[in-house]
């Protein structure tokens, strides 16, 4: 389950990224949801985008999915500069997006959902061909779905997520975007979905995942891209970054709610151990990391308000 | 022909490899699967068939004429017009929408037919086509209003109910009632055209053979695709049962006038609509939109086109039903499409098992539902009961059908199949 430390295919920028964003900005009225975002995704690489609420993750996904076009900046797909004005255009390019609410039709069976909008027809629907291809696709993903002729409503959360991901693969995309794929799942189902993500990588797809769950990110991602207040705030190889470093990039400060909580625990523990009153230095908080890794970092010293400061960014509403 | 459940996974068909699948083969398997479906709340047509049998038994006990061939032929003819309207209601209910104006639209179509034939001297075909085109145009208007402005279909069609009732009165003019010429072919078609017995038997055989052929063909295609196939014995039993049933019906009706052409038209429309709903991309998108509009939109289905196409079909079926009704009564009047036409058409679809919540149902529910509604109406008329009681009983049956719909929905939810 843990990531192989070999991030082989992504070693440096030797190869052209399959999808590349340069200086992408997006505003909603007076709010700058995204400013000068740079992002590269290579084939066979899992990139995680992390950031607090309102950091612009969902806006970024929506730009790639063709829900909103960007205001400025360029998107390069397979070496070509492209525009993505509509969801159909996004799909036609080969970008498949699995939104958090999955968007499955509960009343239809698995086969119908997988091929919805892309049915195989010879005048009439070719159910046999679709069922056969559904099975072979689900087998490739080692999906644990007992029957493809049952309504999606009767599947578990993990199975529904699997169907949604499998559906995104029907159009043979080269990039798959997963918005919070494990948010609503239990432990075992999360593991299943993480396995699935690794299998997508093995198939040579570029995978972009949005997640709040650092454990999942560290388990499956090759690179972590941190967004903060609509800007790039760090781009790490998972293999050589610690949890604390990611957190400090997300919150924009080495002193933040999370580290203070951690240090409070450390102090309490220290006080228990020997009643000496050591001054509360943050536990193993490297001062040099965090904001410095980012490009163009804005660092308001508002540690108390780390999450509250994001509220003006209401344009990029998180899908929940 | 069937794969052995004990074989190693590699020997099994692609869809049977999961070891969690409980599967039994052959006829026994089919019966067990049916039982499981019913227990899981997927009642399908079962409640309405049971209800129909109960209704028929009760009326036969109360009045021995009820199941006479003469009365049953009348029953089939009574079903056809409102049943045709009900097909359109099934479509619109599948989207989770409603059309309350089908009665008015059918009345308007009747008025156009009457005025066209008598006052304007149109040929029958022209009058029929104009009425159907007006129906389609009304549906198109509804579709545009619904998709452009997002007004709930309930309100649009409620407005349409009044507006097109007004238009119907306007078209009919001061007389308010027009008798259709009895010798025009549409009246002859609705009243006096019955299939000769040999043709009716031929159709019965054809229908059973078609069912058998499609099943066999599907099985061979599935085998080719490496998927499991049902037992051929089940297919055989199904086809033979259908053949026997149809032959009995035809033989019994033949002791009176026989199978009416108008009823046959209705049944053919049901079968054709069922084909489009289950076997085409359009039908799949209707179910998808009824299940989840957002999911359908994200899957690239042009949701607005689906809505507009269904509203057009619903109004066109309503117009056709109005034409059949007026041809059967040889008149177009102020009361054409009035009274209980609207509610009967909607009640038939719901009683037949099409869910009011969208995404579940079948064209056959129009056929089954209208049989129930007309059986009640016909039986109560035979008993010389007042229409007041007829309305109350029909209302109670509709309520019962909706309760069954809601309960089976809840049962599906508790069996994880909502």
Would you kindly provide a written description of the structure presented here, covering whatever features stand out?
The complex is a heterodimer of chains A (320) and B (418). Chain A has 320 residues and is of the alpha/beta class. Chain A is 30% helix and 21% strand. Chain A has a single domain (16-310), classed as Rossmann fold. In chain A, helix 5 runs parallel beside helix 6. Chain A starts with 18 loop residues before the first strand and ends in a 47-residue tail after the last helix. Chain B is mostly helical. Chain B folds into 2 domains: 44-193 and 260-328 and 339-405, ABC transporter involved in vitamin B12 uptake, BtuC, CATH 1.10.3470; 194-259. In chain B, strands 1-2 form a two-stranded antiparallel ribbon. Chain B is built from 16 helices and 2 strands. Chain B has helices spanning 26-39, 46-62, 69-94, 102-118, 124-149, 153-172, 185-191, 197-224, 232-254, 261-279, 281-291, 293-298, 303-329, 341-351, 364-382, 387-414; strands spanning 177-179, 331-333. The chains are: A alpha/beta (320), B mainly alpha (418). The interface between A and B is large, with 37 and 36 residues. Chain A: Residues 19-254 form the ABC transporter domain.
User: What's the story with the biggest beta sheet of chain A?
Assistant: 6 strands, mixed
The outline of chain A comes out as: globular
The average pLDDT value of chain B, as a whole number, equals 88
Helix coverage percent of residues of chain A? 25-40%
The CATH H-level superfamily of chain A is P-loop containing nucleotide triphosphate hydrolases
Supply the key terms.
heterodimer, A: 320 residues, alpha/beta, Rossmann fold, six-stranded mixed beta sheet, four-stranded antiparallel beta sheet, 9 helices, 12 strands, 21% strand, globular, disordered N terminus, disordered C terminus, B: 418 residues, mainly alpha, ABC transporter involved in vitamin B12 uptake, BtuC, 2 domains, two-stranded antiparallel sheet, 16 helices
């Amino acid at each position: 389950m843990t990531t192989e430390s070999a991030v082989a295919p992504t070693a440096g920028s030797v190869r052209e990224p399959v999808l590349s964003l340069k200086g992408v900005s997006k505003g909603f009225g007076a709010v700058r949801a995204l400013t000068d975002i740079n992002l590269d995704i290579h084939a066979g690489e899992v990139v995680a985008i992390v950031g607090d609420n309102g950091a612009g993750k969902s806006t970024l996904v929506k730009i790639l999915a063709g829900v909103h076009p960007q205001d400025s900046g360029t998107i390069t797909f397979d070496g070509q500069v492209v525009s993505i004005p509509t969801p159909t255009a996004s799909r036609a390019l080969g970008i498949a997006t699995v939104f958090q609410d999955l968007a499955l039709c509960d009343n239809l069976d698995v086969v119908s959902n997988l091929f919805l909008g892309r049915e195989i027809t010879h005048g009439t629907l070719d159910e046999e061909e679709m069922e056969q291809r559904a099975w072979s696709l689900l087998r490739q993903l080692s999906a644990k779905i007992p029957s493809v002729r049952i309504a999606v409503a009767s599947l578990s959360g993990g199975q529904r997520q699997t169907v949604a991901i499998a559906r995104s693969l029907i159009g043979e995309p080269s990039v798959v975007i997963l918005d919070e794929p494990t948010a609503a799942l239990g432990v075992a189902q999360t593991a299943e979905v993480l396995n699935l993500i690794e299998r997508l990588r093995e198939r040579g797809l570029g995978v972009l995942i949005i997640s709040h769950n650092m454990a999942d990110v560290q388990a499956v991602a090759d690179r972590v891209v941190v967004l903060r207040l609509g800007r790039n705030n760090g781009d790490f190889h998972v293999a050589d970054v610690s949890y604390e470093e990611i957190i400090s990039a997300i919150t924009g400060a080495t002193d933040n709610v999370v580290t203070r909580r951690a240090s409070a625990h450390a102090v309490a523990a220290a006080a228990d151990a020997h009643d000496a009153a050591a001054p509360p230095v943050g536990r193993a908080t490297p001062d040099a990391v965090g904001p410095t890794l980012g490009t163009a970092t804005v660092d308001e010293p508002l540690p108390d308000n780390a999450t509250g400061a994001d509220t003006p960014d209401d344009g990029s509403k998180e899908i929940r | 022909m069937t794969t052995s459940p004990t074989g190693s996974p590699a020997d099994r068909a692609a869809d049977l490899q999961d070891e969690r699948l409980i599967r039994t083969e052959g006829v026994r398997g089919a019966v067990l699967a049916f039982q499981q479906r019913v227990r899981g709340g997927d009642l399908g047509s079962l409640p309405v068939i049971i209800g129909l049998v109960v209704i028929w038994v009760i009326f036969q006990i109360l009045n021995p004429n009820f199941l006479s061939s003469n009365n049953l032929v009348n029953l089939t003819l009574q079903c056809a017009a409102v049943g045709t309207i009900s097909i359109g209601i099934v479509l619109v209910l599948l989207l989770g929408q409603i059309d309350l104006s089908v009665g008015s639209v059918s009345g308007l179509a009747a008025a156009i037919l009457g005025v066209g034939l008598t006052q304007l001297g149109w040929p029958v075909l022209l009058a029929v086509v104009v009425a159907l085109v007006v129906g389609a145009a009304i549906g198109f208007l509804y579709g545009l209003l619904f998709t452009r402005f997002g007004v709930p279909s309930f309100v649009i069609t409620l407005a349409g109910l009044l507006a097109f009732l007004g238009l119907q009165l306007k078209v009919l003019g001061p007389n308010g009632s027009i008798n259709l010429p009895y010798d025009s072919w549409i009246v002859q078609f609705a009243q006096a055209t019955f299939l000769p017995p040999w043709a009716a038997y031929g159709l019965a055989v054809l229908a059973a053979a078609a069912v058998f052929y499609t099943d066999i063909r599907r099985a061979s295609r599935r085998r080719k695709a490496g998927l499991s196939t049902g037992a051929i014995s089940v297919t055989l039993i199904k086809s033979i049962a259908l053949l026997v049933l149809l032959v009995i019906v035809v033989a019994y009706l033949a002791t009176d006038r026989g199978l009416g052409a108008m009823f046959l038209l209705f049944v053919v429309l049901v079968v054709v609509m069922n084909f489009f709903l289950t076997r085409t991309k359009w039908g799949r998108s209707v179910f998808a939109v009824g299940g989840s509009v957002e999911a359908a939109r994200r899957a690239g289905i042009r949701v607005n086109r689906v809505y507009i196409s269904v509203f057009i079909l619903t109004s066109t079926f309503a117009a056709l039903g109005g034409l059949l009704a007026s041809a059967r009564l040889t008149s177009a009047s102020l009361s054409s499409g009035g009274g209980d036409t609207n509610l009967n058409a909607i009640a038939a679809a719901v009683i037949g098992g099409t869910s009011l919540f969208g995404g579940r149902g079948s064209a056959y529910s129009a056929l089954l539902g209208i049989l129930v509604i007309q059986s009640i109406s016909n039986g109560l008329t035979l008993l010389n009961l007042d229409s007041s009681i007829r309305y109350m009983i029909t209302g109670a049956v509709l309520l019962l059908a909706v309760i069954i719909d809601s309960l089976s929905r809840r049962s599906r939810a508790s069996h994880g199949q909502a």
